[in-house]
Amino acid sequence: MCQRSTAGDRLGAVNRGRRLALPVCCAVLTLWCFGASAADSRVVPYAGSRGSATSLTRTELRDIFFARQTKWPNGDPIRVFVLPDRHPLHVRFSKEVLGVYPYQLRSTWDRILYSGTGVPPTVVNTPQEVRERVDEAPGGIGYAEE
Amino acid sequence: MMSTTPRSIARVLGAVTSLLIGLATPAHAIDLGFRDFQIHGFASQGYTHTSGNDFFGNSQDDGSLEFTELGLNVLGHPLPNLLFAVQGIYRDAGGSDKEDFRLDYANFDLSLPVRDNVTLGIRGGRVKNPFGLYNEARDAIWTRPSVLLPQSIYFDSLALREIELASDGGLLYGRFAFGDHALSAELVASDPRANASGATDFIVGFDSLAFRGTNNAPGSFEGRLLLVGRAGYEWREGLVRLFFTAVDFDHDFESSSPTFPSGNAKVFAPLISAQLNLEQWSLTGEYLRIDTERSGFTPGGVLLENTSESYYLQAQYRFAPGWSALARYDALFLNIDDHDGSASARLSGLPRDRFFAKDLTFGLRWEFLEDWLVAAEYHNIDGTAWLSPIDNPGINNPAQAREVSDGHWDLFTLMFSYRF
Fold it and tell me: What distance in Å separates residue A13's CA from the closest CA in chain B?
């Protein structure tokens, strides 16, 4: 990957290319790693009546989905609902919104579960079920396609 | 060989039943309906076959089914910042595990967000030791890259396993995040489970050299708290993970028998861990040294010092959804200054290969259904350093060791697991 963009740079001004090689490399790598999907729809965090989930920053969402933050600012407990690891919506939420690979979430959840250091999210089977469980649970959060 | 006893029949029936129940109802966890409290469990059954030596039971000839791991846990937050978690485990691993039910962890955890990017917390009870990359959750194959973890660092067939795994005490932790970077630190102070399951012999050295062959040194340990500390850096939620762990143990052994001397044992073990996680590839390496200083255990009270060396390099390749392949080179040298074991062999009369183990492993792992997996691997091993003397009687006896052990051997292992 990096070699390819470096080779591309050589076609242009050599000096500029050298200077740009690293940033270009990083940008290409980032796009490739977390590439924007071609789908028209967007995946967004969903918090039901709480409603304000879309204003959460990526850092806040990571704290919540990696089970580090367990309490909302108003003191309510956080309940996280997700789809199975290989569900397309879960994969898109992980990559596009959290900026991580789904296996990073899974390995953290397994580690906290089997070491007694945190509670992993509740896995449900359908996007509809995510919405329902989030709506029912005070402090619930999940994700949805819009 | 596995005998057809009522117990083994019951075990097989139990496995089949849970398999059928599992297939019929793909449950993820049992929701207890009180806050976020939930129950999870797992059941893993392994098969081990070796070309020479025994690992996890009588693994030569027809192989051994003596590798079973069952776990059940309950965890949840009674208050948003307060976690309660308890896990029980049943484990059978041939002669190297005493084959019973045990409390794996039972702790509370109070976390206090100090500022947006700083968290401090305290954990108490029976806590899992933060040691390297894999220790805390290692009895569930779901957290392991392979059926067997690198044995040079994560001892499964030696008496040190129990001490390595968990401690009864308290743990302080902190995390500081800035952008994609996060620094973390954990410190455990605990009463080491040094009196557990044969670990005493191991620590005082009665299982080695002059005292090889004796079991259960009579007496007990007294001393200050065991300290385990781990500092870490993670980039982008673990794409890069770097850890430094240190274990510090200093205890006096009070013998209760006139034939065994009393003495002091000090252990210091630094461990460096590094992992790079790409979309399809994970590259992992860890390096451990264990410095031991024993005094008083030999006539004249000579100070016995030793340093061992362990390391492995591992590549995982996730080539299709649910599939991953693994290659690893893992090495253990019981004496860092005697890699080929020749000096130790001269002193002890044991074969050279008893003092090192170099293990080349190739493995495959397949999550064939959600919450079901099968993993298989082949090990080509030079040396016998991490073999259990209980599974391999005579291996520590100079007169028998050459006959009962095989310096070059192969190990094949297969494991199925289900969890909810």
Answer: 31
